[in-house]
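Just wondering, does anyone understand these tokens?
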Amino acid sequence: MDGRSIRSVALDSGIGNVTLVSILAGKAWPDLATIARLETGLGVDLWPGRHSAS
């Protein structure tokens, strides 16, 4: 993550920080909505090849 705290990324993404900690620890698997929120909050693509499909 770009030097921001987990709490900051969770807030910017609209998810709970406990949820983000669980995902990062491998205790939870994010659904597509959560991945989309993380992409928005982080400003990056997390879904491989999302923009390359025509």
